[in-house]
Design goal:
The chain is α/β, with parallel strands linked by helices. The protein has twelve helices and 14 strands. The strands form three sheets. The protein has a six-stranded parallel beta sheet with strand order 1-14-13-2-4-3, with helices on both faces. The two termini are 39 Å apart. The relative contact order is 0.17.
Length: 383
């Protein structure tokens, strides 16, 4: 079946294929290698997604285009700051799928792995991602020999995409400016990039070590993608205004009403606020499935468990919303930052590309082919 490539994948029985537990990553690696399709894998839980990523890297090598689309570490409707590294990982995965959708794409197609809780969180649309990248003052990429129209426009563009101006670039999502030298760490790059200008012309572009600050690899170009998942000032204003107008504060206490109204002002005037994720549903209305190219393959790992997990999460989120509304801590009609299972399932159903359902093979007999790896956490003597 694998030897026939993508044609055989498209004709897979919708009821699915049953695979030994230990063979799942090897099977997925083989399917991907022979189908040569951009691939999105849905798993029941976040730990399943991380484990599968590690296992696929074992079979395919550390340089394989395998992206984890992680879940947020903060629950919906909580006023807490989200880990920026999680957001950067999510944006890099969306970018990889977005690039694979381009007609002129000639690279290696990615594999993106997402748990159902990660996939249910709203993201901005593929069109928004493409527009944010293409509408920069220097076009899609900044290249050696290219003349820059305005240095101020470039810096303003980076700020609009969510990058922070720092004296020294040390982590993703930062940039700095010193005379004719621009440093930036795009969130989809492994290391920061130093751009040196000669007058208004790009003279050199080099990757550099963020610790030693020494230049290393010479690059021909650099691209910059959004550094934050929520960019309110770039969202459709008519849509956000309509949602804001529908908020019902009748059951809210005065402190909550004042705080939300203050947040809504800050979102569009100085959108670098810590609780930005709370308003994810206000500005983002798509999901990761919208990024899968028309020829992309969706792999559903244990559909029954995914559905169970999705309904459990949905019930949990609903109870969280209900309790906060009853306490006057959340206005009615507040936009949810996630999608329901029914909405996600409709997205799955409408996908044009092949779908592969993988089920687990349960047996009381020990697996004579794939043995689990021995764990050595805290057992150095055994190791």
């Amino acid at each position: 079946l694998i030897a026939k490539g993508s044609d055989s994948v498209k004709s897979l029985n919708p009821s699915g294929i049953t695979v030994r537990q230990g063979a799942r990553p090897a099977y997925l690696a083989a399917i991907y290698k022979n189908s040569k399709l951009p691939t999105l894998v849905l798993t029941p839980r976040p730990e399943d997604a991380r484990r599968l990523q590690d296992q696929l890297l074992t079979y395919m090598g550390d340089t394989a285009p395998i992206y984890l689309f992680p879940s947020s570490d903060v629950l919906p409707f909580e006023r807490l700051a989200v880990d920026t590294n999680t957001g950067h990982e999510r944006l890099a995965a969306l970018w990889a799928l977005s690039e694979a959708s381009r007609a002129e794409f000639s690279g290696v197609y990615p594999i993106v792995i997402a748990s159902i809780v990660a996939a249910s969180r709203n993201v901005f649309s593929p069109e928004f991602m493409s527009k944010a990248i293409n509408d920069g003052p220097h076009g899609r990429e900044l290249k050696i020999g290219q003349r820059t129209k305005s240095l101020d426009d470039i810096l303003k563009y980076w700020v609009n995409l969510g990058y922070r101006n720092e004296p020294l670039v040390e982590s993703r999502g930062q940039f700095s400016h010193r005379g004719g030298i621009l440093d930036i760490f795009p969130v989809h790059y492994d290391c920061p990039v130093r751009i040196e200008l000669f007058d208004d012309e790009v003279d050199t572009i080099r990757a550099f070590d963020p610790i030693t600050q020494r230049s290393s690899e010479v690059l021909g170009e650099v691209s910059v993608i959004p550094a934050r998942e929520q960019l309110p000032h770039m969202a459709d204003k008519s849509s956000t205004d309509s949602i804001i107008d529908s908020l019902d504060f009748s059951r809210c206490n005065q402190a909550t009403k004042d705080r939300v109204e203050e947040d809504l002002v800050d979102l569009f005037s100085s959108p670098d606020i810590e609780t930005l994720h709370l308003y994810n549903g206000l500005v983002n209305h798509n999901n990761i499935l919208d990024y899968l190219p028309s020829n992309g393959m969706l792999v559903i790992d244990r559909m029954t468990q995914i559905e169970t997990e999705a309904y459990d999460l949905q019930d949990k989120y609903w109870r969280m919303r209900e309790s906060r509304e009853e306490r006057g801590e959340l206005p009615a009609n507040f936009p949810a930052p996630y999608m329901t299972w029914q909405e996600l399932y409709r997205s799955i159903d409408h996908l044009a590309g092949p779908k592969l359902h993988i089920n687990s093979w349960f047996s009381d007999e020990p697996d004579s082919i794939f043995a689990p790896a021995n764990p050595y956490y805290g057992q150095m003597d055994d190791f």
